[in-house]
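Usage

Read records sequentially. Each one opens with the input sequence:
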Amino acid sequence: MDTTKRILICGSGVAGPTCAYWLHKYGYSTVIVEKAAALRDGGQNVDIKGAGQQVIEMMALSEKIEANNTQERGQKYLDAAGNVIAVLPKGALGTLTSDFEILRGDFAQVLFESTKDDCEYRFGRFVTALEEKEDGISATFDNGKTEDFELVICAEGINSSTRDMLMAAQTRFRYLGAYMAFFKIPRREEDDRWAYTVNGIGGTFITLRPGNEKETTVLITFLRRDHDMFGDTPAARRRLLRQALDGRGAIADRVSADLDTVDDFYFGPMSQVQASTWSKGRFVLLGDAAFCPTPFTGKGTALALVAAYVLAGEIKRSADHSQAFAVYERLLRPYVEASQKQLNPRRIRLIHPRSGCGIYLTHLAQRLLASQAVQRRFRPSAAKRARMAADDFLFADYS
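and closes with the structure output:
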């Protein structure tokens, strides 16, 4: 079988379909395998920042994303009783809300609709074995079938099982000293288009954000010295999360009350993926599988978009896969590492004050950040934000 220009992509999140989009433009045939039975509609708000916005514009998806925008107006910091501490509208310095706000599931749907006619999707399917050959790479799937491809791109995410088949020794996780949970709870009448953030005693950080007409999204992070749990079961995760919410105020009580009704529930250590290399032979890592910065940075989606564009472009213009993967990593690694360095255990502790005194000082800082004097002096204009996005990463021309 001629495997030339036939590429297997593992993972149907953001990075995989984006790479498939560009590879199709360059004349490649792609197969996307996804372990889930269908596109997942869960997940948090994703912020498409910096150079990621340029990729979206090059894909002509800006209008579709805007049509699915969460319409988040900005961010409000609250105290434990629910009183407003500071208000940061969309576009303000330091706000959580970016120009492009969309639920991850909605974004995955946009990407799927943009690629489904040009590449083959196989849901409920995953790779069980990989074997490199002289002129290609053989993939065996869970149904027992084996197929040959020119290359395999792994874009499965932080806990990729396919990555661990070939590159477990090259991959390590950097634990940042906190755990993270995100899920959806029923929307209430008082919920509006603002994001609400609360710093809770003991190092708990809670944010509610607009979801859809029936649901509100929840992000919770909390300090924890150890990055493993005794008895890692759904019940143990919920128990640990309830402990982080107990006594943290009105917002925490609301989330805790709704916790038993949550179906799509992510919970785990806040860790970064740091791989010593991103490729091995004809196998290459992409997105969170290669360099997850943690969702807390808000940079993961942009990194996935930029990396997918560059990887596809280098596959197109390079003499062989070895050169393509080497240039891809050389171009992207400084950009990735700069994003990862924005978060470290010390900064995580600063963002998650433990004591009443620490929370009081945090509230003072939040008020100062939201003050007219600071915002007038440092808030970037729309034009400046556009320039910052354009300068975020220097793209090569692969046309």
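Summary fields computed downstream for this record:
- The first helix runs from residue 15 to 25.
- The two ends are 29 Å apart (CA to CA).
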